[in-house]
Each structure stands twice: as structure tokens, then as C-alpha cells.
Amino acid sequence: MSQISESTTETNRRNRIWFFPDKFWRHTKDMAKDEAANLMAEVEGYAAAGDVQALSKYPFVVVGDPYKKKQKDPAA
Q1: What is the pTM of this model?
Q2: Are 12 and 47 in contact (CB under 8 A)?
Q3: DSSP 3-state of 53
Q4: pLDDT of 8-42, one tens digit each?
Q5: CA 19 to CA 60: how far, in whole Å?
Q6: What angle separates helix 21-28 from helix 33-49, to the nearest 10 degrees?
Q7: For residue 18, how many other CB atoms are within 10 A of its CB?
Q8: Secondary structure, 3-state, 2-49
């Protein structure tokens, strides 16, 4: 039983959604307050639904570990 919960925990770590407020504020600094609020509501909706593909289009949202270094392709 613990093996199932460990697997679920690992999956949740890999699909964790990270929001970076500083990047959001830079992205929305020239937007009207209502427009920025609508954008935030849209992002929150995608996050609640777990739609990682939709979230990937936002420069202030990262799905997974944003601090993990990407490995170089060994075939290259």
C-alpha cells in the first residue's frame, strides 16, 4: 500500500505547478488591472484543472522542477 502512495507522491512532485510572481508582475505591468486579474483567473483555472499543456504557454508558470538542470542529450 505504501508503494502506491510513494508512486503518487513522486508523480505529484514531477507535475508540481510553480508560479513566479515577479515574472507575472513584469509580464502584466502594462496591462489594465482587470486584464491582469482575468489572466490570473485563467491561469488559476488551468492549474485547478491540471492542464499542464495550457500552463506551459505562460512564461511565469513552470510545471515540474524549475531548478533542476536539464541534461544534455548524450547522443549529440
Answers
A1: 0.66
A2: no
A3: helix
A4: 444 455 678 889 999 999 999 999 999 999 999 99
A5: 6
A6: 140
A7: 13
A8: HHHHHHHHHHHHHCCEEECHHHHHHHHCCCCHHHHHHHHHHHHHHHHH
Q: Which three cell numbers stand for residue 46?
A: 488551468
Q: Do the Cβ atoms of 66 and 13 come closer than 8 Å?
A: no
Count the alpha carbons within 13 Å of 45 in the hemisphere toward its beta carbon: 7
Helix (H, G, I), strand (E, B) or coil at 54: helix
SS3 at position 64: coil
Cα gap 56→43, rounded to integer Å: 10
